Amino acid sequence: MREPLRFLLAAALGGGLAAAAVVVISPGGGTTTRTVPATTRVAANALASDQHTHETLAHLIYERAAPSVVAISATTQTGGLFGGTQGDSGSGIVVGAKGLILTNNHVVAGASSITIQFGGTGGATRRARVVGVDASDDLALLAVKPGTLKLTPLRFGDSARVHVGDPAFAIGNPYTYDQTLTVGVISALDRTITSPNGATITGVIQTDAALNPGNSGGPLLNAQGQIIGVNSQIASGGGVYGAGGNSGIGFALPSAAVLHDLATLDHGAARAG
Hints:
This protein is of the alpha+beta class. It folds into 3 domains: 2-65, no CATH class; 67-152, Thrombin, subunit H (Beta Barrel), CATH 2.40.10; 159-261, Thrombin, subunit H, CATH 2.40.10.10. The chain has helices spanning 2-14, 40-65, 105-108, 255-272, and strands at residues 19-25, 31-37, 69-78, 84-96, 100-104, 113-117, 125-134, 139-143, 167-172, 180-194, 200-207, 219-221, 227-234, 250-254. The strands form 3 sheets. The protein has a 6-stranded antiparallel beta barrel with strand order 3-4-5-8-7-6. A hairpin with a 5-residue loop joins strand 1 (19-25) and strand 2. Helix 1 packs antiparallel against helix 2 (40-65). The longest helix is centred in the first third of the chain and has 26 residues, at 40-65.
């Protein structure tokens, strides 16, 4: 995105013009044209300003959203003669100030023990229980007792208003590196993926923001820091859930479908107490 801006400035300066028309592309995709004096210093400042705006946006989104993204550790009892346990990790999103956490069902399915960590390494931990599941959409709602913790739910955006090329920001717990931010764009819309139970999920958002094992259940955010998707799968040589890492093809469940499910899951959570 910065190359066209650099080319415009260089061309104007090279022609000895007194002023240059600079097209500034905002993180939200809009453009603004302004006329600036054609000096090398102003050209450099315009480029630096564009860089600063992008970096500031990512920083602000992270600062606001990261406290509402949690790391999840799930322990499952294994069978066999001697038994034992195995662990899985993922991410979750605070969706209720009283302790409701949204994640992927495949992160916690079959778990005998679930631990939520808030605020990254060294942060407070709480035991969680599953209060609602939609296995076909690979979503699960967890509940914790926050105690003295002040939880701030993340806001949802409208996935129907997302366009290819829009900026995308993912926060999660890849390979247990908690509170990790990755940045990319919306790569495609209306993808189809398969839930772990074999159900078809449609309307999925594709992004090149780096997703790895452990990002599952974390948010995909727009430039306003709103949830537009729940990161769920990646395409790689290791398969969508396996040992493979980021290949630049990640999939997020769209917020419109997530909100529809969340209403049902939350109702079930209220009945469960």
